[in-house]
Write a structure and sequence with these properties.
- The structure is a single chain.
- The chain folds into two domains: 105 residues, Tetrapyrrole methylase, N-terminal domain (Cobalt-precorrin-4 Transmethylase, domain 1, 3-Layer(aba) Sandwich), CATH 3.40.1010.10; 118 residues, Methyltransferase, Cobalt-precorrin-4 Transmethylase, Domain 2 (2-Layer Sandwich).
- The chain contains seven helices and ten strands.
- It has a five-stranded parallel β-sheet, sandwiched between helices. Strands 6-7-10-8-9 form a five-stranded mixed β-sheet, sandwiched between helices.
- α2 crosses α3.
- It binds S-adenosyl-L-homocysteine.
- The site of S-adenosyl-L-homocysteine (SAH) has 23 residues, from α4 and β10.
């Protein structure tokens, strides 16, 4: 069996219990070298074969998986955060689909969630927004036109923007063009949940300069939206007049 496992955002305690158990049992581990915390590999057996996928081609990765499976060995493919977001796992699963090798995915704590915890702040607030948009700026990977930052900005929802901190000037401009006020709060979280995590707060008008001053230009999450301001209608979840599936109504 091949397990695609979410390693979480960095803190080795933020992998799931299931993911940790699979790592402890694995005979072969292929991890995403750039972002996965290597401390997680301490969970592996001493004899576990460990590969860093940085610089490996898709075919090399899938061949290692297939060979190991055919030799009766268990494989963990360890991806940063949750594997379903910007993880390039689809092409690996598709390659396995064309063989008879079985696989399963174990989710992980995505970095946008670790970033919200670092602030800490809720991303959905009644009366402000009930929507979170996960996206990125166009880089080497194209983004469909309908999903341009400015068109997504028109919703004034909470946006969590991956893979884009090195383009923060252009990003802030596009967000304003799209419809956020230039005083909309923005938080940039670098290396959320790592010991050297940093949080920079500002507005769309000044965040690019603040991040530049802090020297943040990689591995950071950008969270934008009025949700980060305090003014909102408190959630009805803990309102005694609000009947809730578990708690029932007032008796
Ligand atoms: N699958 C991953 C995302 C991989 S893309 C996930 O679910 O988090 C890599 C991007 O994720 C980085 O450019 C950065 O925007 C973000 N990222 C990953 N780890 C992060 C962390 N610990 N703190 C802040 N951003 C992080």
């Amino acid at each position: 069996m091949i397990y695609f496992v979410g390693a979480g955002p960095g803190d080795p305690e933020l992998i799931t219990v299931k993911g940790a158990k699979l790592l402890a049992r694995a005979d072969v581990v292929i991890y995403t070298g750039s972002l996965v915390n290597r401390e997680l590999l301490d969970l592996c057996k001493p004899e576990t074969e460990i590969y860093n996928s940085a610089g490996m081609h898709l075919e090399e990765i899938t061949q290692i998986m297939i060979n190991a499976h055919q030799a009766g060995r268990e494989v963990v493919r360890l991806h940063t955060g949750d594997p379903s977001l910007y993880g390039a796992i689809q092409e690996q699963m598709d390659a396995l689909n064309s063989t008879a090798v079985p696989y399963a995915v174990v989710p992980g704590v995505s970095s946008f969630l670790a970033a919200a915890a670092a602030i800490p702040h809720e991303l959905t607030l009644p009366g402000i927004t009930q929507t979170v948009i996960l996206t990125r700026m166009e880089g080497r990977t194209p983004v469909p036109k309908k999903e341009s930052i400015s068109s997504l900005a028109a919703h004034n929802a909470t946006m969590c923007i991956f893979l884009s901190v090195h383009m923060l000037d252009g990003l802030a401009r596009e967000l304003i063009t799209g419809g956020y006020g230039d005083q909309t709060p923005v938080v940039v979280v670098e290396k959320a949940s790592w010991p050297d995590e940093r949080v920079v707060t500002g507005t769309l008008a000044n965040i690019a300069e603040k991040a530049r001053e802090a020297g943040i230009n990689r591995t950071a999450m950008i969270i934008v939206g009025d949700v980060l301001k305090a003014d909102y209608t408190p959630s009805r979840l803990y309102d005694p007049d609000f009947t809730h599936g578990f708690r029932g109504g007032k008796s």
